[in-house]
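Anyone up for a design puzzle?
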């Protein structure tokens, strides 16, 4: 590694504030475990899923293995690493991080137990545990952000909106229980619950985080990208979705149109960032593919088509795995770089020597394949295709793990070379 190259690089983040690597990996590794359970669930439950039996308790369990167990677990791990570095604040203590993790993990396990045995009392208990876990975690991260002196309006407000969306998701879970009593139409509350989880929580999170990640990967500046527009549109779309609870599903359709504008704005930002970049990173193949699927999802949502959820699932999966193919090697590089001479941000350049440059292409190809199998299987009631999509998902995870193992191997060689 040529350290003279690092002298010309001026990062806008403080990687010295990064928590110990075990903190975010605790969430991410557990997320992989739940992803495996979700994929196996899709393989085993191919027939009821293909027949559209979304109310089957075991199907609901598989879905929440993916949403609560993988997507949300991974998102919490990312923010555990990301907020101290981006906002230049001390990380949470490792004990506190482990406590938050264990409470949340307990809630997910109890939730799955209640669904597996169709026990509503256990489900109610799990709802309470998850609510406590999410609130405690949210308060901790919110407190970190309020102590930061690096307040960048778009990123800052976007992350806050995502955290609020995470809490609104569990609140809407309580509304789901009330809908069984006839207070609101059950399916309308279900749609809002799903839209909040995918749009307000994960959607606003991705719209915000990528404002830092994309310029970093392309080595470009983020000025003049009008970064606030997609986040504002995403927030307005979410508010319209919530308003549909008191009005009609037509308002939700308009909210989907606004969200489609947020997705288009994000794609435009991505194109401008890549064009201005000093180097092209194959990660943008995966990221761009993910946004295309999310665009398809937002279009389908205008007609309240259930396939919108499937496309969103695969879109977020491709997005997360594409970014992780760079983020996890960077986290490993950060550990190694602390024992090497030179400035702290040399980890950026060391990470480039560790990861597989074209792993995001593999992620994109397998992700689109899985999405097509899911779409055709659901629409045509082909259970074999739905099950095959679960097999593809497992294969996708296998390539991701191989990429991580390779990064760790390269890190070991770098450490041995120093010794």
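Challenge accepted. My sequence:
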């Amino acid at each position: 590694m040529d350290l003279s190259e690092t002298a010309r690089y001026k990062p806008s983040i403080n990687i010295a504030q990064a928590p110990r690597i075990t903190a975010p990996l605790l969430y991410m590794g557990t997320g992989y475990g739940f992803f495996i359970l979700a994929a196996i669930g899709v393989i085993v439950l191919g027939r009821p899923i293909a027949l559209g039996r979304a109310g089957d308790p075991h199907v609901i369990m598989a879905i929440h293995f993916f949403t609560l167990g993988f997507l949300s677990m991974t998102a919490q791990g990312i923010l555990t690493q990301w907020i101290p570095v981006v906002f230049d604040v001390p990380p949470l203590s490792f004990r506190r991080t482990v406590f938050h993790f264990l409470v949340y993990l307990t809630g997910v396990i109890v939730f799955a137990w209640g669904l597996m045995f169709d026990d509503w009392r256990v489900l109610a208990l799990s709802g309470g545990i998850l609510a406590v876990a999410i609130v405690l975690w949210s308060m901790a991260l919110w407190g970190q952000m309020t102590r930061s002196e690096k307040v960048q309006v778009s990123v800052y407000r976007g992350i806050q909106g995502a955290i609020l969306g995470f809490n609104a998701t569990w609140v809407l879970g309580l509304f789901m229980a009330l809908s069984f009593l006839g207070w609101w139409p059950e399916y309308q509350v279900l749609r809002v619950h799903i839209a909040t989880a995918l749009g307000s929580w994960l959607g606003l999170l991705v719209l915000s985080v990528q404002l830092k990640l994309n310029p970093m990967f392309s080595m470009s500046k983020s000025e003049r990208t009008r970064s606030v527009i997609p986040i504002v549109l995403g927030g307005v779309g979410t508010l319209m979705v919530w308003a549909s609870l008191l009005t009609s599903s037509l308002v939700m359709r308009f909210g989907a149109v606004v969200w489609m504008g947020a997705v288009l704005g994000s794609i435009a930002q991505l194109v401008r960032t890549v064009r201005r970049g000093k180097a092209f990173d194959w990660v943008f193949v995966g990221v761009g593919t993910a946004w295309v699927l999310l665009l398809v999802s937002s279009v389908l949502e205008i007609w309240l088509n259930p396939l919108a959820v499937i496309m969103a699932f695969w879109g977020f999966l491709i997005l997360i795995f594409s970014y992780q193919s760079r983020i996890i090697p960077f986290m490993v590089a950060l550990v190694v770089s602390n024992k090497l001479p030179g400035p702290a941000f040399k980890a950026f350049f060391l990470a480039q020597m560790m990861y597989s440059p074209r792993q995001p292409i593999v992620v994109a190809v397998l992700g689109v394949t899985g999405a097509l199998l899911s779409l055709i299987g659901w629409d045509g009631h082909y259970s074999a295709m739905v099950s095959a999509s679960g097999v593809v998902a497992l294969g996708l995870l296998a390539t991701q793990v191989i990429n991580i193992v390779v990064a760790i191997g390269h890190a070991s060689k770098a450490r041995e070379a120093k010794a």
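A detail worth pointing out: The chain has 14 helices and no strands.
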